[in-house]
Structures are given as structure tokens and as C-alpha cells.
Amino acid sequence: MSKYLFGHIAALLTIFIWGTTFISTKILLVDFKPIDILFFRFLIGLIALVIIYPKRLKKTTKDQEITFALAGLCGVTLYFLLENIALTYSMASNIGVIISIAPFFTAILSDFVLKEKSLKSNFIIGFIAAMIGIALISFNGTSNFKLNPIGDVLALLAALVWAIYSVLTKKISEYGYNTIQVTRRIFIYGIAFMLIALVPFDFELNLNRFTNPVYLGNIIFLGLGASALCFVTWNVAVKILGAVKTSIYIYIVPVVTVVTSLIILNEQITLMSFIGTILTLIGLFLSQDFRDKG
């Protein structure tokens, strides 16, 4: 297996798991606040990474530590807080479409910071096709799109923050450190920044909630799967494919959500969702340009 194929598989695995986390989050939100879920899942993820690879990351420079800290702030703390707060102001369909703009932001930042020159015609055409597809999936042929300045701006900021995180992880991958060590260091900084937000967002420890096996199982899935495993596989994909090519896989999160809803929740796929899925996949392949191995 070539390393580029491995990179695409790592990105697909990551997106598949992230696309299914809405079910676990939905279940937990009955008795957990968004900040509770965020803190517990990344704490579990950090503990898992320490157990899997206990060797400490040593001999880093001050500039490298600043980059790790910024990655933790953007990819762990700010992104999820902005997304969760946005959901309290605006509809999930709006947020899903707006956050899917992240690959476009990543391409722009990569042009300026990494000099990757990714804004080619195939990328633009693929982006337009994917956004139309995602809109069809999210709104499902209805007229539910309503602008909410606060929620939609927060979602836009979340997309920008994730783009910054993707560029930072590409820069970090060039340091040559073990991916698990790097992800663990990012989690440490992310949780440290998160501690500042616990009081303002009314964090509740209340470990008795985990006596419910459903809650325990879902938080473990988010901690081990969506956090520990997925952040490692995402960072691996970014290291191999680059920030832009990896971020393009964000387009198919709504597709995974539709398929998961069909299988687990027995929801029906409408014609609009089907057309949107096809357009999104076409956009992914056009933007990705699998012939380019660089």
C-alpha cells in the first residue's frame, strides 16, 4: 500500500467516525452540557494516548511549543466551543453548510502560509459542486434557511479556526515527531485552554451520570474514537496528503450523516438528499484531483 493511499484511508476513517458522532452527542445532550461533553471526551482521549504511547515528547523548541499551543487552542478548544455555541443560535442545517466552507479557507491559508498553491480551477469547481450538494442534504429541499447573524458568524469563525488548525498540523508534521506524541501535546494545550472556559460555560463534574451505561458508552466512543483515534489519523493524513487535500474530506461529513441516519435511525433518504450526496462526492473527487500525488 502506497503512503498516499494510506493517507486517503486515514482521512476517510476519520471523517466516517466524525460523521457518526452526532448520534452520541445527541444522546449525551439530554443530561450533559456541550462543555461537559467536550471536556470529558478530550480528557479520555488524552489518557488513552498516554497509555498507548507513554514516551514523552522532548527537546522541543519555544517556537514549536507555541505552534502546539495554537493547534490545541484552535483544533480542540475554539473550534468545538464556537460550533456548539453557534448551534444554540442557529439551525444545525445552517451550521453544517457554513462549517463545510473550511476546506476553502484551508486552501487560501495554505497558499499564503505553506505556499501550496491549491486554488486551481478543479478545486473551485469541486468546491461549488460540493457546497450545492451539502446545501441540498442539509436543507433537504425545504426553505429552512434563515440567517442568524450571531450563529452564522460563529459557524464561519469555527470553519476558519479549523482551517488554521489544519495548516498548523501540516507545519507540525514537518518537525518529524511521532504523531501520537504530537496529538497528545496538542490535547494537553487544548484541555488547558478549555479549563478557562469551564466556569463561564457552567461546567458540571457530576460523575454519577456515567453510572448510566448508555452515557458511559457514548462518552467512551467520543473519547477513544472521535478524539484519540481520529485526531491521530487526521494528523497522519495531513502529514501525508497536505492540509488542503485532507480538509476536502470534510465535504462528505453530511453524506456519512445521511447514511448513518438511514442505517441506525431508519430515516428515509429523500430525492434531494440523494442528489446532494452525488453532487458532494463529485465535488470531493474534482477538488481532490487524485492524479496529483504531491
From TrEMBL:
<feature type="transmembrane region" description="Helical">
    <location>
        <begin position="9"/>
        <end position="29"/>
    </location>
</feature>
<feature type="domain" description="EamA">
    <location>
        <begin position="6"/>
        <end position="138"/>
    </location>
</feature>
<feature type="domain" description="EamA">
    <location>
        <begin position="150"/>
        <end position="286"/>
    </location>
</feature>
<dbReference type="Pfam" id="PF00892">
    <property type="entry name" value="EamA"/>
</dbReference>
<feature type="transmembrane region" description="Helical">
    <location>
        <begin position="35"/>
        <end position="54"/>
    </location>
</feature>
<keyword id="KW-0812">Transmembrane</keyword>
<feature type="transmembrane region" description="Helical">
    <location>
        <begin position="271"/>
        <end position="287"/>
    </location>
</feature>
<keyword id="KW-1003">Cell membrane</keyword>
<feature type="transmembrane region" description="Helical">
    <location>
        <begin position="66"/>
        <end position="89"/>
    </location>
</feature>
<feature type="transmembrane region" description="Helical">
    <location>
        <begin position="147"/>
        <end position="165"/>
    </location>
</feature>
<dbReference type="InterPro" id="IPR037185">
    <property type="entry name" value="EmrE-like"/>
</dbReference>
<dbReference type="InterPro" id="IPR050638">
    <property type="entry name" value="AA-Vitamin_Transporters"/>
</dbReference>
<dbReference type="InterPro" id="IPR000620">
    <property type="entry name" value="EamA_dom"/>
</dbReference>
<feature type="transmembrane region" description="Helical">
    <location>
        <begin position="215"/>
        <end position="236"/>
    </location>
</feature>
<feature type="transmembrane region" description="Helical">
    <location>
        <begin position="186"/>
        <end position="203"/>
    </location>
</feature>
<feature type="transmembrane region" description="Helical">
    <location>
        <begin position="121"/>
        <end position="141"/>
    </location>
</feature>
<keyword id="KW-0472">Membrane</keyword>
<comment type="similarity">
    <text>Belongs to the EamA transporter family.</text>
</comment>
<dbReference type="GO" id="GO:0005886">
    <property type="term" value="C:plasma membrane"/>
</dbReference>
<protein>
    <submittedName>
        <fullName>Threonine/homoserine efflux transporter RhtA</fullName>
    </submittedName>
</protein>
<keyword id="KW-1133">Transmembrane helix</keyword>
<feature type="transmembrane region" description="Helical">
    <location>
        <begin position="95"/>
        <end position="114"/>
    </location>
</feature>
<feature type="transmembrane region" description="Helical">
    <location>
        <begin position="248"/>
        <end position="265"/>
    </location>
</feature>
